[in-house]
Design a protein that fits this description.
Layout (H helix, E strand, L loop, with lengths): L1 E2 L2 E2 L1 H26 L7 H14 L1 H33 L1 H16 L6 H8 L3 H25 L3 H9 L4 H39 L3 H11 L3 H29 L7
Antiparallel strand pairs: 1-2
Length: 256
């Protein structure tokens, strides 16, 4: 049902389920047509993934990746949010850091991975740094943007009442910037997954990225696609949870 130009939640879920069925059917058609050399059928991937879990191979390679994602993303969020809030609030600091941050953000971070590995070595420290860099920049940029786009009339109103700075942060800046902060978290955490896999690709010997390469070298397409689908499902879950958190924390603005 369409109400005021918007779809009802039940209708949205119907469309999502219908699209998922369409993609699944198309997947089967392509897999059957091209053969297992290019794309495995979904049920074959599920069976291969389940067997890998039972053998302990899945957890063996998942744990190192989960560790570097947890540490690197936590550091990225823990530093990115306060730095973004500060940059967004202090005008001269924003103008000072805008160009360097944008230059660094537009630089393909994958090009820096070999240099990081040469300097720090092929270890978890370098992998955590890679995940941190993939996470922190989107968080800083979106958080700063959220603070700077808070309604200036509200800020002027707080100044007219001589409200202390902490009150301005608590009642105006943080609530107003929250949707942008949550968007930054979604982008940053999904980028963290990408950074972790790329770190595994380059550093090797452990992690989901190495497992994907291992299966690919054996021409085990079903085995290689299993970790890819797990990462995709993890990213989808993160985005869904953060959208739900945003709706609860700022129901007046909704989740973008």
């Amino acid at each position: 049902m369409v109400t005021d130009g918007t779809l009802s939640r039940s209708r949205i879920w119907q469309l999502r389920i219908g699209f998922a069925i369409f993609v699944l059917a198309l997947w089967y058609v392509v897999a059957i047509t091209t053969g297992d050399l290019f794309l495995a059928e979904p049920h074959v991937i599920a069976q291969r993934l389940w067997q890998s879990f039972l053998d302990g191979e899945f957890l063996q390679y998942a744990q190192p990746t989960a560790y570097i994602i947890a540490v690197g993303a936590a550091l990225g969020v823990g530093l990115g949010v306060p730095v973004g809030l500060l940059i967004g609030r202090v005008r001269w600091l924003y103008w000072l850091t805008e160009a360097p941050i944008n230059i660094f953000y537009t630089t393909p971070l994958v090009a820096l991975i070999p240099f990081i590995l040469v300097i720090l070595g092929f270890n978890n420290t370098s992998k955590i740094l890679i995940v941190f860099l993939f996470t922190v920049l989107p968080v800083i940029i979106n958080t700063a943007s959220g603070v700077r786009t808070v309604d200036p009339d509200l800020l002027e109103l707080t100044r007219s009442f001589c409200a202390p700075e902490w009150t301005v942060w608590r009642d105006v800046l943080i609530p107003g910037a929250l949707p942008a902060i949550m968007t930054g978290l979604r982008i940053g955490l999904i980028h963290a997954l990408v950074g972790a896999v790329l770190a595994d690709f380059y550093a090797g010997a452990s992690g989901f990225g190495y497992l994907i390469i291992l299966y690919s070298n054996r021409f085990d397409i079903a085995g290689a696609l299993g970790p890819v689908l797990v990462l995709a499902a993890t990213g989808t879950l993160i985005a869904t949870l953060l959208k739900g958190a945003q709706r609860r924390l700022s129901p007046w603005q909704g989740a973008s």
